[in-house]
Amino acid sequence: MSNELIKKKNIYDVNEVLENALVYGVDEYGEILSEEQIGELVEKMKMTLSSKLEYMGKVTINSDTFAKAIDSEIKRLQDKKKMVENGANRTKSYIDRFIRYKYTDEEGVVDLEGLNKFKLETPSINISYRKSEKLEVVDATKVPKEYVKTTVEEKVDAIPLKKFMKDNKMTETEYAKVVTNINLQIK
User: Fold this and answer.
1) pTM of the shown model
2) CA 152 to chain centre
3) Pick from 122, 97, 100, 99: nearest CA to 109
4) Angle, nearest 10°, between helix axes 35-102 and 11-19?
5) In a 3-state reduction of DSSP, which class is residue 120?
6) Radius of gyration (Cα) for the chain, nearest Å?
7) For 62-103, how does the pLDDT look when each residue is reduced to its tens digit (9 = 90+)?
8) CA-to-CA distance for 8 and 14, rounded, in angstroms?
């Protein structure tokens, strides 16, 4: 068997060639081998097997090292993303405080209707406020059972409760109230 052919064998082929030579006394083409030829073939296959296993080991180590480098880069990028998001949130908070200040009277009460109408539109950015409502549960033990989700622990199902209160034109009960928020939008 030529050395070039041996190099092209994969690890399973090497084992098969060794088995055929040692058990049946033949090469990969079925040709009968002498004892000397079997010895030479076994030595070549052992060397081939050893170098293939060494190569596969090196590939494994390189792949593990590369995977660790990727994990490190992912962590670095996640940290950078968090830093950028925090900066954006600080800037948005600053813009919101500045605009709300313009709509606050001497007693510190914000004119929500005026704030909700605020708009700044330029070719590159739009800043406005959007009205949203959120349900705040005041006393969960007093919420009617049909609005309570039962899981491992009881939890108020806010969506249908809020809908019920809005449909019945209720903004506050002994157990919940609908709170209106005005949220800054930057697009």
Assistant:
1) 0.51
2) 27
3) 100
4) 160
5) strand
6) 37
7) 999 999 999 999 999 999 999 999 999 999 999 999 999 999
8) 10
